[in-house]
Amino acid sequence: MADSRVSPYSLNDLKNTTDDALGNYLRGLSFKQDNSKLDVRLALGYVAVIIAGATFAADYKLGWEATKYWTAVAVAAYAVLNTGLTYWMYMVEKGLVFEGDRSGSKVSIASKTKKHDPTYYLTVTVTKQNETPSTWQIKAPFTTWFTADGFFVAKPFQQWLATSIEAVGDADAKNASRDERDELASPTAKVQVQQQNDGHVDSTGADKGKGSKRTKRKG
């Protein structure tokens, strides 16, 4: 069990902690992370900050009259960079949490949450050599791997990923075991009882009495 505790009522804290755990888990399975999209985002952000800082320093030392034209150029450049950064985050990365490959399989995973919905949504894209990329969505309630008092429990989270994503299951066959998946329980009995009373999904992210929602599409 993780030593750090988050608020079980904060979707932002639950998502960020889970996002971090996802990346750590896949890197631990020897997935080689591709940081190219992250590098572009960081570059755009850093250049914008440098322009803002340089403009302030020039204005402070030389005065407004000497720098007003350069300031106008800097403001325009700053606006363009921030527009590009926003586009990159929302249209290119689209919530990307991890992108990497292992044994010829490239895995891209993007996460999101919905307002007032304590559910973790993942869009998974797997690309194998000489094959068309396959994309599908999976989801599970945060109570699958968070205790009622906000502690993260790695085992059920890893089992859910390994069972739902074949490329991850290939790298972690034990956690992808069918028997272990069927025996998955919430981290605490209290959470499990609460799920039953509320009619929430079970620990595999499937609705009670139904199979796990995993809609596959080719693209």
UniProtKB/TrEMBL annotation:
Subcellular location per the Swiss-Prot or TrEMBL entry: Endoplasmic reticulum membrane
Stored PANTHER family: MICROSOMAL SIGNAL PEPTIDASE 25 KDA SUBUNIT (PTHR13085), SIGNAL PEPTIDASE COMPLEX SUBUNIT 2 (PTHR13085:SF0)
Family note: Belongs to the SPCS2 family.
Compositional bias per record (Basic and acidic residues), positions renumbered to this chain: 172-184, 199-210
InterPro entries listed in its UniProt record: Spc2/SPCS2
A Gene Ontology biological process term: signal peptide processing
Keywords: Endoplasmic reticulum, Membrane, Transmembrane, Transmembrane helix
Composition skew (Polar residues), residue ranges: 189-198
Transmembrane domains' residue ranges: 38-57, 69-90
Organism: Zasmidium cellare ATCC 36951
Topology within the bilayer: Multi-pass membrane protein
This protein's record includes keyword Aminoacyl-tRNA synthetase: no
GO cellular component: signal peptidase complex
Renumbered residue ranges of the record's region Disordered: 172-219
Protein name: Signal peptidase complex subunit 2
Described function: Component of the signal peptidase complex (SPC) which catalyzes the cleavage of N-terminal signal sequences from nascent proteins as they are translocated into the lumen of the endoplasmic reticulum. Enhances the enzymatic activity of SPC and facilitates the interactions between different components of the translocation site.
